[in-house]
C-alpha cells in the first residue's frame, strides 16, 4: 500500500530554546533566535546548521524550524520549510497573511532555491536573513541551488521586504563550526 501520511517532527529540545512567552521585538532578536536554533541543532546532532522562526507583527513567536533533512529522510525538511509548515498548521492557513496580519520569517541563512520558492507562496511580509548563500557555500559543502539573478527584487515585487546581514558574523560562526566537523547533514 502506498503511504498516505507524512510525519515530520522537530527535535524535543525546541521548547528549551524558543520562548513563546516573550516578544521578539527587533530584527536582531528574531534572527538571533534562528541562529540559536541552528547552533543547538548542530551541537545536538539533530540536523544541519540552519534555523528559522515565524513571528507576527507584534513579535510573538508563531513557529520555529530547524534542518531535519537527514534525520527525517526528507529533502524538503529545511528549517524554513519546517517553520512555514508548523506556522500554517498552527494558524490553519496555507498563506499566513491571507486573513490579514503581518508575518515575518527570520532565518539563520539565506533561503536556498527551494525555500525561496516557498517564501513566495507562504504568506510572509518580511524576510530577515543572517548569513548569505555565499557564506553557506564557502563555509559548508551545501549547494544552495539556482536563484533568480534579482531574487530580492522578485520578493519585493510580491510585497515581501528583505533585510539581510543581520547578525551575519554569528550566523557564519555556526556555519564554520559545522563545516569544520565534516558532518554529512
Automatic annotation (TrEMBL):
InterPro entries: CMP_dCMP_dom, Cytidine_deaminase-like
Domain CMP/dCMP-type deaminase: 25-155
Protein name as annotated: tRNA-specific adenosine deaminase
Organism of derivation: Rhodanobacter panaciterrae
Organism phylogeny: Bacteria, Pseudomonadati, Pseudomonadota, Gammaproteobacteria, Lysobacterales
